[in-house]
Amino acid sequence: YIQRREWTAIESAATPTVTTENGRLTQAQADWLRTADTFFIATTDTAGNADASHRGGAPGFVHVVDDHHLEFADYPGNNMFLTLDNISAEPTAGLLFIDWDGGTVLHLTGSVAIRSELDGRADGAALSIELTVEHVVERRHVTPLRWSVPAITG
After folding, report:
1. How does residue 76 score in pLDDT terms, banded at 50, 70 and 90?
2. Do residues 86 and 51 lie in contact, with contact meaning Cβ atoms separated by under 8 Å?
3. b/e per residue, 71-106, with b = 16+ CB within 10 A?
4. Where are the beta strands (DSSP E) in the chain?
5. Taking the chain, what is the end-to-end CA distance rounded to the nearest angstrom?
6. What is the DSSP letter of 128?
7. What is the Rg, in whole angstroms, of the alpha carbon atoms belonging to the chain?
8. Are 136 and 21 a contacting pair, CB within 8 Å?
């Protein structure tokens, strides 16, 4: 579920700004997450050692439950299970979503839980991870790069 995109640099990038910062998702942010095909998750173990990894899927793999909760399917990956091990030991995480077309990023932090009641899913996910949103920061114009629509592979 790694999406292949081509990137280009824009010449006149605006100054990065914090657009919103609060403890819940806005409707526009929830709509963005519902169409996401990629994000990055950061976790730590009990000693504070950090790990960051990619999560991806077809648009819609992130389910926004309400303005304080979202969940996403956890698909088989490299079988290292660092993220899942860290969540089991230290149930907090940070998620980073990128607006590939506009250079905006969305940072979400909160508590996480692993859910395993996904038997029989057609998409192959065996687990889901639920985030209880505690802090949301949206930053505009963070990156001077723009990315294409994902290439269809397979």
Report:
1. low
2. yes
3. bbbbbebeeeeebeebbeebebbbbebbbbeebbbb
4. 7-9, 17-22, 38-44, 50-56, 62-66, 69-74, 92-98, 105-115, 127-140, 145-147
5. 11
6. E
7. 16
8. yes
- Burial code (b: 16+ CB inside 10 Å, e: under 16) for 31-45 equals ebbeebbbbebbbbe
β partners of residue 101: none
pLDDT at 1: 65
In this structure, which amino acid lies at residue 121?
A: R
pLDDT at 46 over 50: yes
Tens of pLDDT, residues 85-144 = 899 999 999 999 998 888 889 999 999 999 876 555 556 677 889 999 999 999 988 877
User: How far, CA to CA in Å, does 64 sit from each of 10, 33, 97?
Assistant: 31, 7, 14
H or E element that contains 64: strand 62-66
∠ Cα 108 8 96 (to 5°) = 10
Which residue type sits at 7?
A: W
Pairwise CA distance, residues 10 & 111, whole Å: 36
Please answer whether residues 103 and 146 qualify as being in contact, where contact means their C-beta atoms are separated by less than 8 angstroms: yes
Under the banding of pLDDT at 50, 70 and 90, the label for residue 20 is: confident
Q: How far apart are CA 43 and CA 90, in angstroms?
A: 8
What are the structure tokens assigned to 40, written together? 């990055």
